[in-house]
Specification:
The protein is an alpha/beta fold. Helix content is 38%, strand content 20%. The protein contains 13 helices and 15 strands. The strands form three sheets. Strands 6, 8, 9, 10, 11, 12, 13, 14 and 15 form a nine-stranded mixed sheet that branches. Helix 7 (201-211) links the parallel strand 9 (190-194) and strand 10. One of its GO terms (molecular function) is isomerase activity. Residues 149-241 form the Mandelate racemase/muconate lactonizing enzyme C-terminal domain.
Length: 376
């Protein structure tokens, strides 16, 4: 079997003027990402996602990857990441190369799964896994005024028992947002916060201590991703677990986080970290050092499917019998047609349970006509 064709498909969706949503760093109205459609000489099609703008993905793929990928046996996929570090050498250690590797890698694993008749999570060594726990990613900052409790109440009404909210604009506002979220979500539910790297270490520490009484499961990106010393400083002064990884890519960046014990939880994004092959290496490093793994998801339905398959494969070590902290996957609750419209059967997180697809490969069927509607 050989890869016969690769198509780069940029897709996007834009919210109406004045209806942007965002985090502590600002607002945005456009969601965009890039799909890869990979077809073999046997007619098997695999899908992947590069979590990066289409024009950059297209140029990077054409310049650095097309000649090697077209004609490649999809079963050789695990050599792709290694070759990307060595063959392109000076160009390998950047987010755009890793995003392209991610898309090709995920598409190849999709093809492998379809060829052998197994879902990817079983191919990656995971036990049979039927369901995961979704957490609502919600309470974004918005351009329009609305009661801050409204989106959390909507998540509760949908049956979510875990949620993550945006903070990072000052200790007083942060504390009020957390207070409201906890009140609506309930004392027994799981609550996380995301600062999106908007703080210096002392600012993050001050907020972390102020919200500690609200039983926070983790604080995400308290400082910018490049601020290694800042992560170490926050970790020294804060008891709440620290999470990061959405803005990191490749095994070497994650190795620094893990080796330095800068975080308690790593969050690889399957459209950026290097795909399944790199994510498996990252998970192995993390679990070896007893660091938790929870994938980051801000992707289309293809990236979501990849994250779900990956999450289902991650080792439960050291919780091999009883699992006090079930594997959770992020489920963005903002409107996103790139997530809801491009699969024949969209993911449904309502009721606090997310089914893991058991069909071969990613376990999902892409609606190619719908993809065309969002091609940008």
């Amino acid at each position: 079997m050989k890869i016969d064709d690769v198509e780069v498909i940029p897709i996007s969706s834009t919210r109406p003027e004045g209806e942007g949503i965002g985090d502590a760093r600002g607002f945005g109205r456009t969601r965009e990402t890039t799909l890869l459609r990979v077809e073999t000489d046997t007619g098997t099609v695999g899908w992947g996602e590069a979590f990066a703008p289409g024009r950059i993905v297209d140029a990077t793929f054409e310049e650095l990857f097309r000649d090697d990928v077209v004609g490649m046996d999809p079963f050789d996929v695990e050599s792709l990441a290694d070759d990307a570090y060595t063959d392109s050498y000076h160009f390998a250690g950047n987010v755009f190369s890793q995003s392209v590797v991610s898309a090709v890698d995920v598409a190849c694993w999709d093809i492998i799964g379809k060829t052998v008749g197994r879902p990817v999570h079983r191919l990656l060594g995971g036990e049979e896994c039927q369901t995961l726990t979704p957490y609502a990613s919600t309470m974004y900052f918005t351009e329009t005024d609305r009661p801050i409790e409204e989106p959390m109440q909507a998540a509760v009404d949908e049956g979510f028992t875990a949620a993550k909210i945006k903070i990072g604009t000052g200790v007083d506002e942060d504390t009020e947002r957390v207070r409201v979220a906890r009140e609506v979500l309930g004392d027994d539910a799981t609550l996380m916060v995301d600062m999106n790297g908007n703080y210096r270490p002392r600012q993050a520490i001050k907020t972390a201590k102020a919200i500690e009484p609200y039983d926070i499961t983790w604080i995400e990106e308290p400082v910018p991703p490049e601020n290694d010393s800042g992560y170490r400083e926050v970790k020294r002064h804060v008891d709440t677990p620290i999470a990061a990884g959405e803005a990191h890519y490749g095994r070497f960046e994650f190795k620094h986080l893990i080796d330095d014990r800068a975080v308690d939880i790593v969050q690889p994004n399957l459209g950026r970290c290097g795909g399944f092959s790199e994510a498996r290496l990252i998970a192995d490093m993390a679990t070896t050092e007893n660091v938790a793994v929870r994938p980051h998801i801000w992707n289309s339905a293809v990236g979501l499917a990849a994250a779900v398959q990956f999450a289902a494969s991650v080792s439960r070590y050291p919780n091999t019998r009883n699992v006090p902290e079930p594997m959770m996957v992020e489920f963005d609750r903002s409107e996103n047609p790139l997530r809801t419209d491009i699969l024949e059967t969209p993911f449904d997180p309502t009721g606090g349970v997310l089914d893991v697809p058991q069909e071969p490969g990613l376990g999902v069927s892409v609606d190619e006509a719908a993809v065309e509607q969002y091609r940008s």
